[in-house]
């Protein structure tokens, strides 16, 4: 098929050349001549694109299967795109970070499986095939078609031109980069731990920041706070101002009467202000 397509391309180029040459002899205007050249280039480009469909696909079967090794434990886990991490640090906004193109991740499990994830959902599991030098491939588990080259290097995962850093899960990443640390409230020390626990804040035991803003009424940065006595969580809007972490009550800006649902929120009264000291 590939050789046949090349033959077709050669004949198209020849025909177009003869066509333009004959039209030039007929003293076409310069505008018409330019149009013919553009047409010729367009046809050639379209033909080349169609040829790309028939280029040979890399298959694992063409490689030495014995060279692949079991996935080391140190490679298993949740891997986050460094561009997402850097944007999260700078913006201090899980809402803004969820909207960038680099909000993507990979999950490597125990059975030589790697899965692509974004903020909202994930793709089909693929095979992770590794060689002893830390290099390898992401391939289809059924057809063995190779999708990407991968390499583990210096505690990082490299997939083509993208770099990923390992965390236990996305919640841990967000807590570690934004919220965990030591705060002060009225000279009292409070700790936000990486696992989501809160130590020293009267009546509140846990926090859980949102990272997937998939629904209406989620137009501002949101976080859940768990209240001990009520044994339930409440949503608050959070905001970082220099060294302060501020929580606001959630007010409804735009309410859908027909469906009894708030489709746009706004900041209400300030609920809590913490000063981060470490």
Write out the strand line-up for the largest beta sheet, numbering strands in chain order: 2-3-4-5-6-7-8-9
Which class of secondary structure composition applies to the elements? alpha+beta
The CATH architecture of the largest domain can be given as Beta Barrel
CATH class assignment of the largest domain: Mainly Beta
How much helicity do the residues have? 25-40%
What's the order of the H and E elements? HHEEHHEEEEEEEHEEEEEEEE
Shape: elongated
- The overall average pLDDT, rounded, is 82
Tally the structural domains: 3
DSSP strand count:
17
Tally of alpha and pi helices: 5
Q: N-to-C terminal Cα separation, in Å?
A: 65 Å
Give the low-pLDDT segments: 1-56
Overview of this protein structure:
With 278 residues, the chain is α+β, with helices and mostly antiparallel strands. The chain has three domains: 2-52; 60-167, Beta Barrel (Lipocalin); 175-276, no CATH class. Helix content is 26%, strand content 40%. The protein has five helices and 17 strands. The chain has helices at residues 2-25, 30-52, 82-91, 94-98, 170-179; strands at residues 68-69, 77-81, 104-108, 113-118, 126-131, 135-139, 146-153, 156-159, 162-167, 181-185, 188-192, 198-199, 204-209, 222-227, 232-241, 244-256, 261-276. It has an eight-stranded antiparallel β-barrel. The protein has an eight-stranded antiparallel sheet with strand order 12-11-10-17-16-15-14-13. Strand 15 and strand 16 form a beta hairpin. Helix 1 runs antiparallel to helix 2. It is elongated. Residues 1-56 have low confidence and may be disordered.
